[in-house]
From TrEMBL:
<protein>
    <recommendedName>
        <fullName>Cytochrome P450 2U1</fullName>
        <ecNumber>1.14.14.80</ecNumber>
    </recommendedName>
</protein>
<dbReference type="GO" id="GO:0008202">
    <property type="term" value="P:steroid metabolic process"/>
</dbReference>
<keyword id="KW-0560">Oxidoreductase</keyword>
<dbReference type="GO" id="GO:0102033">
    <property type="term" value="F:long-chain fatty acid omega-hydroxylase activity"/>
</dbReference>
<keyword id="KW-0812">Transmembrane</keyword>
<keyword id="KW-0479">Metal-binding</keyword>
<dbReference type="GO" id="GO:0005737">
    <property type="term" value="C:cytoplasm"/>
</dbReference>
<keyword id="KW-0503">Monooxygenase</keyword>
<dbReference type="GO" id="GO:0016712">
    <property type="term" value="F:oxidoreductase activity, acting on paired donors, with incorporation or reduction of molecular oxygen, reduced flavin or flavoprotein as one donor, and incorporation of one atom of oxygen"/>
</dbReference>
<dbReference type="GO" id="GO:0005506">
    <property type="term" value="F:iron ion binding"/>
</dbReference>
<keyword id="KW-0999">Mitochondrion inner membrane</keyword>
<dbReference type="GO" id="GO:0006805">
    <property type="term" value="P:xenobiotic metabolic process"/>
</dbReference>
<dbReference type="Pfam" id="PF00067">
    <property type="entry name" value="p450"/>
</dbReference>
<keyword id="KW-0496">Mitochondrion</keyword>
<dbReference type="InterPro" id="IPR017972">
    <property type="entry name" value="Cyt_P450_CS"/>
</dbReference>
<dbReference type="GO" id="GO:0005789">
    <property type="term" value="C:endoplasmic reticulum membrane"/>
</dbReference>
<dbReference type="InterPro" id="IPR001128">
    <property type="entry name" value="Cyt_P450"/>
</dbReference>
Length: 509
């Protein structure tokens, strides 16, 4: 019999054997606890699961796994079981046909959000309260112009402000990412706050910086949320704490705006989304189970900012990048805009059906760029059998929209930018069901209609007035992009050349 002393265990040889023994035990426990008949997937390491494999671009890794394991793949991040849906048919079956089972949301990453009673629309569990809030929010968004000409005016006003900002850099190289973020955020601000900010407003800049910083947080920084024991290691929790502080700043900004609204709130003069929610709170104040409370209003307004800020501005940045990389397509879009809208008239959503090539170009941007490659994860609300596999309750379910948008059988030469995919033989725009940049089902993006309005109006307004190109002698920017919480283009520089109006003395081109 071999008897090891404490001193033997502290030797390099003893530590190695101890570590091997611990890992073996953990592997055995993990294997024994693994539910039976899960979808196939790669074997993970003890404790960390498949995190090591995901140290690269996660959507690309998951798409490679799909080629090996199929449309439904299982893997682990730590002890968390995840299921990835890699084809349109399985996403549609889960999120549309079996919606009630696949309608949950994972627990918030931060203790700040976990401790909040009001989880909002994005992170809230699906049920009667969430349904009420979603119905109310969609109605209020429509009341304040989403899908109507009244909001078009606000978007065009913001497009004009963006164009004025660009004009200050005419014929000079500049970066546009901060400008697009400010423009998109101002549209949301006009709906929820009832006003727009000046671009150089310090308060607005602080808000933009906080929201932008939240999207730049690395997934590595959030590991303590997956492995709570890491929070006790000095320094390991810094990234998660920083993320929480950013969230708290954004929430505080919204709380201050609501406080200002309450000072001069008039139930007979509802000015914006915040006023509409405050009125609903007042109308329901005698209800025993109050679904409408101020804390919920704060969270929903933050949801609206986060939902539209990065995805819409990134898509607009991608659109301009593709125009730089494909000047022939940019010229065709401009020719269509000139012939249908002209250069003296502001674009409107009524022009969208009259400009099929422009609509097709934006659809191709949404497909190829796929700014939300994994959308927002769902969870299963009960144990279920799906496509012959057993899926435990509480399993995290991710739609791999990147894989769907880059499936060669659906999109021949999927990495080629080709707007004609969305045109028929007569040149009319063809809607493709397999294009799902906002996900699908009852938990699809609440701001889809607003985002589509913004993209079309901003894009046509800018191309109506400018031609965009590379700076002289500059290297061709990468079209690969960076994967984080969203898929963003690598920051690039461009030059805006004004397209003179016919009434001007300068020749048109």
């Amino acid at each position: 019999m071999v008897i090891w002393s404490v001193f033997d265990l502290l030797t390099p040889w003893g530590l190695s054997w101890t570590l091997l023994l611990v890992l073996s035990c953990l592997t055995a426990v993990q294997y024994l606890q693994r539910p039976a008949n899960l979808p196939p997937g790669p074997r993970g390491w003890p404790v960390i699961g498949n995190l090591y494999s995901l140290r690269k671009e996660t959507p690309l890794v998951l798409t490679e796994w799909a080629k090996e394991y199929g449309d439904i793949v299982s893997y682990h991040t730590g002890s968390k079981l995840r299921i990835v849906l890699n084809s349109y048919s399985v996403v549609h079956e889960a999120f549309v046909k079996k919606f009630d089972i696949f309608s949950g949301r994972p627990e918030p990453l931060t203790s700040f959000m976990a401790q909040r009673k009001a989880k909002g629309i994005v992170c809230g569990s699906y049920g009667p309260t969430l349904k009420e809030h979603r119905r109310f929010s969609m109605k209020s968004l429509r009341d304040f112009g989403v899908g109507k000409s009244s909001l078009e005016g606000k978007i065009i006003e913001e497009a004009r402000a963006l164009a004025d900002k660009i004009s200050k850099h005419e014929h000079q190289e500049f970066r546009i990412h901060r400008m697009t973020r400010a423009a998109v955020s101002n549209v949301i601000a006009s709906i929820v706050f009832g006003f727009r900010y000046e671009y150089d407003d310090p308060e607005f800049q602080a808000l933009l910086y906080s929201v932008s910083e939240s999207f730049s947080i690395s997934l590595l920084s959030l590991l303590p949320a997956i492995f709570p024991t890491l929070q006790y290691i000095p320094g390991a929790n810094n990234g998660l704490k920083r993320y929480e502080k950013i969230l708290m700043k954004v929430f505080k900004h919204v709380q201050e705006e609501i406080k200002e609204h309450k000072k001069d709130f008039n139930p007979d003069d509802v000015r914006d989304f915040i006023d509409a929610f405050l009125l609903e709170i007042k109308n329901r104040e005698n209800e025993e189970d109050r679904a409408f409370i101020e804390e919920q209003l704060v969270t929903i307004v933050v949801d609206l900012f986060f939902a539209g800020f990065d995805t819409t501005s990134n898509t607009l940045q991608w659109a301009l990048l593709y125009m730089i990389l494909h000047p022939d397509i940019q010229e065709k879009v401009q020719q269509e805009i000139d012939s249908v809208i002209g250069r003296n008239q502001d674009p409107s959503m009524v022009h969208r059906n009259q400009t099929p090539y422009t609509a097709a170009t934006l659809a191709e941007v949404e497909r190829l760029a796929t700014v939300a490659p994994l959308a927002l994860a769902h969870t299963t609300t009960e144990e279920t059998t799906f496509r012959g596999y057993n899926i435990p309750k509480g399993t995290i379910v991710e739609p791999n929209i990147w894989a769907i948008h880059h499936e060669p059988q659906l999109w021949p030469h999927p990495h080629k930018f080709d707007p004609t995919r969305f045109l028929d033989n007569t040149g009319k725009f063809v809607k493709r069901d397999k294009l799902i940049p906002f996900s699908i089902g009852r938990r699809a993006c609440l701001g889809e209609q607003l985002a589509r309005m913004e993209l079309y109006l901003f894009f046509t307004y800018l191309l109506q007035r400018f031609s965009f190109k590379l700076p002289e002698g500059a290297p061709v920017p990468s079209a690969k992009g960076e994967f984080g919480l969203t898929h963003a283009p690598i920051t690039y520089e461009l030059v805006a050349v004004p397209r003179h109006l016919p009434s001007e003395t300068c020749p048109t081109y």
